[in-house]
Amino acid sequence: MSKAVASRLLRSTDRGIWSERVGVMFEAQFGDEAPFDISVESTHLGRVIVSDMRTSPFFFARRKKKLRTDMLDHFMLRVDATASETVLNVVDFGQELADFAPIAPHNVSIILPRDVMTDAVPDAETLHGRVVPDAGTELLKDFIRLLSQHAPTLRQDQADGTATALVDLIGATLSRRPLALDRGRAAVARAVTLRAQQFIRRNLHDPRLGPDLIVARIGVSRSTLYRLFEPFGGVAAYILERRLEQAYRALGDSRDLRLIGTIAHGLGFASESQFSRSFRQRFGRTPSEVRRLARDGADAGERGESPLNERPFAAWLQGL
């Protein structure tokens, strides 16, 4: 029988704990109201994370400094529920939310990677920060809320199909259906982007990896390459992100016995100190801390505990 999907329930009255969790994606400001109480259940469905949150009031934003430091490349679809209505909001993590806004006391969110979202909705970037009131989104809102109720009880073999149905519904309800010429241009751009991304992933070990090498190998102009990778924060940011993700996976594998410096140099970093600074800035932990947590988890597993289902939300997000 297939195992259940990974699901985590977090309850807390500690603003500090919650600020750290929110800090993965947003800056948070809390009022003086007491007591503070929050409950969030998150479920990992392969390339989609669904979260159901009930919370005391706080405010959130995503300003330029936050964008530069975490380099998240995801979209969030959030259904905010009030006493009188439900509202669908779209957040592009690659764009700024400059003003602190209040969070709804009950909200359900879907987080998915940029490539999944833009494949379904080619003009997804234009929806950022907007409340989407179109009547056609009512079905999408209902599906997201229903999914949040049942996601924690899904089997792993049901997760992929459920996530696919969700993405199809997102495309059907939010896509603005560009003209054929625009679709053709977008398809070519996506194909070239995917080719460049594939080349990058295969050459993360090469310290020469950068725009010059990519341009020479895949046959596009430098200006085209820069334009295609602009939504990802630029070519260098995309390369760094992939290298750090690869390093995180290696350090999180208790069976990988390589030295941290060996992992860093094997991924093209000039020095271990440079790698450690970038890693901590990205994940909020040093490479040594991630390795220690992985080994502690392996030891707990040998004792019959089940730490693997308790991966931090940040790790879930990075692994999408």
Observed structural traits:
13 helices, alpha+beta, 320 residues, 19% strand, seven-stranded antiparallel beta sheet
Describe the protein's architecture and organization.
The chain has 320 residues and is α+β, with helices and mostly antiparallel strands. It has 13 helices and ten strands. The chain has helices spanning 15-22, 64-70, 114-120, 138-150, 156-174, 180-202, 211-218, 222-229, 235-251, 260-266, 272-283, 287-302, 313-319; strands spanning 6-12, 27-30, 38-44, 49-55, 58-62, 74-81, 86-92, 97-102, 106-113, 131-132. The strands form two sheets. The chain has a seven-stranded antiparallel β-sheet with strand order 1-3-4-9-6-7-10, sandwiched between helices. A three-stranded antiparallel β-sheet has the order 2-5-8. Helix 4 packs antiparallel against helix 5 and helix 9 (235-251) crosses helix 11 (272-283). The longest helix is centred in the middle third of the chain and has 23 residues, at 180-202. Residues 300-310 have low confidence and may be disordered.
Q: Could you outline the blueprint of secondary structure elements for this entry?
A:
Blueprint: E1 6-12, H1 15-22, E2 27-30, E3 38-44, E4 49-55, E5 58-62, H2 64-70, E6 74-81, E7 86-92, E8 97-102, E9 106-113, H3 114-120, E10 131-132, H4 138-150, H5 156-174, H6 180-202, H7 211-218, H8 222-229, H9 235-251, H10 260-266, H11 272-283, H12 287-302, H13 313-319
Antiparallel strand pairs: 1-3, 2-5, 3-4, 4-9, 5-8, 6-7, 6-9, 7-10
